[in-house]
Each structure stands twice: as C-alpha cells, then as structure tokens.
Design a protein that fits this description.
By secondary structure, the chain is of the alpha+beta class. The chain has 4 helices and 11 strands. It has helices at 31-39, 108-120, 172-175, 217-231, and strands spanning 14-17, 61-72, 75-83, 94-95, 98-100, 127-132, 136-137, 142-151, 164-171, 182-188, 191-197. The strands form 2 sheets. Strands 2, 3, 4, 5, 6, 7, 8 and 9 form an 8-stranded mixed sheet that branches. The protein has a 3-stranded antiparallel sheet with strand order 1-10-11.
Length: 232
C-alpha cells in the first residue's frame, strides 16, 4: 500500500467549513455566463494545484477529465461518476469521466472525450467544450487537465460496467457554494494530508430510498478551482 494513502476519507475529521465565502451568484451559473467567463477570463488564482507530495518518483503522466455541465430546466448540473468497488485505483470514488492520455489522442480534449465515451457512452456530438481549468497533479503522478464542456440534453448513456457503477448529476449551484465545502486534515505514516469534501445527498427516490455521495480529493479540488474562477 502506498505510504500516506487515505483509505477511508469519510472517517477523516472535518477541521473547518468555508461558510465565510460567498456563493457564486446565480447569474454566473448559466450556460452563457460560463461560456463568457472562459472566453474572457478574469485575473484569478487556482487554490489547488495538486494533492501534495507524490507517492513515487515515476515520471508524471498526462491525463484529462471532462467537467460536463448539463442544462436541466434552465439550471446547470455537473455530471459525475461513481467508480466500481473492485478497481485497483480509486475504487468506489466519485470522479469526473476521464483518464490517462493515449499515444493516438490528439490533445487533452481528445483524451477527455474519448474517455467519457468509453466510460459512460457520452457521444461527442452532445459536447461543446468551452475551456480548461488549471492542470492538477495527483499523488499518483498524473497531470490532469480538466476540460470544461456544456452538454446538450437528449443524450443517452451506456456505462462500462467494469469501471463505472453509477452516473449522477449535482446542481452546479450546490457545488459553487463554499458553505458546502468541508476541510479535512489527517496524518498517515508521518505524512500530513489535507483535502476538501463536498458531500451530496439528493432528494429521496419515489421508493423512499435515500442516497448520498462523498465528493472529495482531486474531484473536489478541481471543483473548488472552478469556484475560484467563477467567483473572481
């Protein structure tokens, strides 16, 4: 097991919540506003550039994720996946569709769109890329480019059952409200690790079944950088 690996993030103590930071105004959370923000970005600084100290010395590998924004009833929602429990890496975690770049990928966009199609069956024709967030380096030595895109409704999905257990959507307004962002700190094997989480509990299903999703780590950090861009 890698030194400093967080096995159970939900058990790590919460040391603070960012209730002092304002939510992104509603008028900045529309498709047009997001498109304009990337076309004419303000001066801003990303809050997170990586997980911290890398676990090994292998050369960094490029990867991409798709930050897919779906418009539903006039409001944007972020499409996320929950990985299957048996995977070697990031089992059971909430993540964006995406993965490692391959030699025949033309660029970061090509990687993100290919991975999204392979993982969840999202067709490229429904995706309109609007910009990028800063590269994020993981402790496992991946340099991840977040590709932000507007996704037109009407798409159908076909999940890769080996990798993806579920796809769900979270209102962008929820994720862009720092009062929902929790800070965690833990020391493991002499290494101090800190991360954000954004737990999401959608309304109960008609059957009454309650669900919850623990958004944390690189996914939460990328969303926090997105907050910094939209709030600037």
């Amino acid at each position: 097991m890698a030194r400093g690996l967080i096995v159970d993030p939900q058990a790590v103590p919460v040391v603070g919540m960012d209730t002092d930071l304002p939510a992104v105004p509603t008028e900045r959370l529309t498709s047009q506003a997001v498109r304009e923000r990337f076309a004419r970005p303000p001066i801003w600084t990303p809050e997170f550039v990586g997980d911290g100290r890398r676990f090994d010395d292998r050369p960094p590998a490029p990867a991409s994720v798709l930050v897919a924004l779906v418009e539903r009833a006039g409001a944007l929602r972020v499409l996320l996946t929950q990985r299957t429990a048996h995977l070697k890496d990031h089992a059971g975690q909430v993540s964006f569709p995406g993965g490692r770049s391959e030699a025949d990928d033309a660029d970061a966009v090509d990687t993100a769109l290919r991975e999204a199609h392979e993982e969840i069956g999202l067709e490229r024709g429904h995706v309109d890329v609007v910009g990028f967030l800063p590269v994020y380096t993981t402790v496992t030595s991946f340099e991840v480019t977040p590709v932000v895109a507007l996704v037109r409704p009407g798409f159908s999905l076909a999940l890769d059952a080996f990798e993806v257990a579920e796809v769900f959507e979270v209102p962008l307004s929820f994720l862009m409200t720092p009062a929902h962002h929790r800070r965690h700190v833990v020391e493991i094997d002499g290494l101090r690790r800190q991360f954000l989480s954004m737990p999401w509990a959608p309304p109960p299903e008609p059957s009454g079944q309650a669900r919850s999703y623990f958004i944390w780590g690189a996914t939460a950090a990328i969303l926090r950088n997105f907050y910094r861009l939209l709030a600037a």
